[in-house]
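Teaching note: in complex prediction, the entire set of molecules is handled at once rather than each chain in isolation. The prompt given to students was simply: 'Predict the structure of this complex.' The entities are:
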Amino acid sequence: MGLQPVSKLAIVPASARLIVVSNRLPLTLRKTDDGWKTEPSSGGLASAMNPLLRKDGGDWIGWAGVAGEQDQESRRTVLEEWAEKDRRFAVELPDDVAKGFYEGYANQTLWPVFHNFPSQLKFVSKAWEAYVEANRIFSQAVAEHYKQNDLIWVHDYHLMLLPQMLREQLPDAAIGFFLHIPFPSSEIFPVLPRREEVLEGLLGADLLAFQTHGYLQQFRAALLRVLGMESKIEQVAVGSRPVRLEALPIGIAPEEYTNLLKSDRTTAEQYAEWVARYKGRKVLLAVDRLDYTKGVLERLRAYAHLLRSSPELKEKVVLIQIAVPTREGIDTYQELRTEVNRLVGEINGKLGTPEWTPLVYINRSIDRTELVGLYKLADVCWVGSLRDGMNLVAKEYVTCKPEGDGVLVLSEFAGAAAEMGEALLINPFDEERTAATIERALALDEQERRLRMTTLHNRVLRNNVFRWGERFLASLREAVAERGRFIDTQPQRLRPTEVRDAYARGSRRLLILDYDGTLVPFAKRPQQAAPPPVILDTLSALASDPQNCVALMSGRSAENLDRWFGSVRGLWLAAEHGAELKASFISTWEPLRSQVPAEWKNTVMPILEHFVDRTPGSFVEEKKYALVWHYRMAEPEFGEWLANELVSMLEAMLAETELRAFRGEKIVEVKPVWANKGEVLNRLLVTWADLDFIFAAGDDRTDEDLFERLRSDAWTVHIGPGPTRASYVVADFERLRQVLKLFAESGSARKVS
Ligand code: ADQ
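The expected output is the structure of the full assembly:
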């Protein structure tokens, strides 16, 4: 395995400067008759990050928004002011790049796929090129701004190529990435054009964080399915570089809302006016960007259904729908706007009365002072996203309910649902049931209402955006520190004479050896890999030494190991990766767990057989405790691709059981999680204590369980290239045989002398 240079940057000092990079800055340029002016940006990312940076400081790099031909000087003056006063640095994108990047690949390709709307996907390769170019321009801007020890925090789906581009320019930089939107399931993600490049772009980061555990798992499934990369729940290795994975649900800055509630005059006046206006009516509130993922149309239809099916609500309820215009250059958004306008007219026209407008529709951005008043006023906040990374409106609303007098109705498809279980959850695609839940929310008894809301309120205050930011940055620092450790632990080449000398010095030794791929090369069919006499001789010599405990641990069945190694006296055998063990001094096999239900095979076997049907040359091997799908003889790329699909499928199916699907060398094996070599080691150590020489060799992922558990002075040896936790590597099985022969000879030499 090629060794990577050790990173100079081991730990980022706590005083490091933060550089935030996102598509938009929290400030937007707007052209007026008097030249260019500054406005605050809308949307969740700006809402969340702005208070964080205001409190803790940091530089922010983002796109300035629309370019303009005229009045360049006034434009430049505004941007210079942003840089000097606010440390907000504007990136300029040429018009055609900006359009293809933002309205093209980011919002017509990535956005729909990541929100489970593949039917809305539009792709043209020109837009992809613009996306690449925009990311490149960003990477240039960040690299120019960067100073050693800075922490770079990249945000969201617009900049998914940026981590890798930065890694190439700044190999030692600390780069974190947070995805604000969902990560789609492994069924949907592969639909994405240029999916490999997107995943590889992200993997340039030291830390990748998602809003929920669910999204993180889906990201891992995509890595496996699209790139064939296995990962752990907390980490994935890109060569010898670790990438940390985290779920970090974003929060809000509660004081930005509670302070207005407590002491803002406009808020208080507006609130008083609305209380008078809506007297005797219950207020339902919805606040969204006008995006098809937010479920505005579905909400309006459910509301119409509610009014029709519950005539007693007539003149007793009002829905205030606030919808900020967004992405108006894209056709789908224009069509949505037209359809929403039509429905609003229809609801008010058909269901209203001269005294009552059932639906108040506001199609613009409103000030925070007003928004807070509305949150305070609303009896029910209705979040109906069809898919949403988190949804901050849900959190803002409960923040404005310190007394607990309100109900949150929340879509189960918003990330927020994962941590806001006290809300009344809805499936927004089901209009009838949604209407019923709204009715329930309106009638909820006071005690239950307060209990649910105060629990939510306290949690949102606790898990605020500052805590989220601290956790992200702490995790990024740890990830960078880990990088140094990870690289330090890369294996060295095993020097035969050095290990032979250590062996000779030992007086109580443990030798653990894998079989296939370690002592013999892989054969096309498992039964063809019988041990040659030289192996049997070496093992006999080693196992007959009373100072040695020699254990052969293999994935093979007990019956197979008995047939081949039954004659080697003094050898311990572990079959099926440790499901069964036969000690050197007895002749029977002992299972590692006494209760082993076997019915699971009836469920898993048909799936594996289905894969055999699809893959010429592959076959299923049935063991006592495991089922194995072998695809060594299948067409290589197709085999790998299907193996990824099989593991993804089995992982989901077996999640709640003690069974796991493992990838090995051209196999997928389903077996109980406890059947592993690490467990067998524990048994061996009970019999063999006070060891002064430990040697373990293997080539497979199952051997990693063992390497991980052995003490640090053990000689752990991985055969062949590939990521490993072993301390040493040898090139192939022949080199390992030479080492074992040296051990055997040094033993017999001592006996003679
Ligand atoms: P958004 O899709 O923008 O954010 P959301 O989380 O609901 O969605 O945030 C919207 C923000 O805009 C809120 O702070 C809200 O108060 C504000 N807002 C909405 N309508 C408004 C209006 N008419 N006037 C003024 N303000 C308005 C993305 C993801 C989300 C994720 C956030 C943060 O899509 O899933 O929660 O980032 O990570």
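Point out the following to students. The chain has four domains: 18-92+144-247, 255-461, 492-593+675-752, 600-672. Residues 42-45, 47-48, 180-181, 250, 287-289, 322, 324, 365-366, 371, 388-393, 396 surround adenosine-5'-diphosphate-glucose (CB under 6 Å).
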